[in-house]
Fold this sequence. Notes:
Number of helices: 3
Largest sheet: 3 strands, antiparallel
Pfam families: DUF8199 (PF26622)
Oligomer: single chain
Amino acid sequence: MFSTVSFTIEKHFCGDVLVDVSVFTEAQKCIMGAFETDQQTIRKKICCKDEVNVIQGQDNLRLTSFEDFNFQQQLFIASFTYTFISVSQGLAEHVIPHKNYSPPHLVADIQVLDQVFII
């Protein structure tokens, strides 16, 4: 899957110093780069530069169908699918025997009456 993904790496340099590196988005410009774009008519030499590296993914994919596999591969895929589906099916609902019973009504707190405390 990763061989088919294309992405870009954008780097922004101010002079020889690397200011920002970003993947998938535009790199942040430094303050000098923003100043130079405003004052571009005054200056002819710009010290900031952008470098963009494009990494291309694979374009040609080989699509196969179930009939392209030999009999042993088809048998393995079918048995694996059947086993995976049968194992991952939900179990029977867990029965809680005391679900409908309420706890007994406490008349008094025994620990306080007996003055027994865990310290």
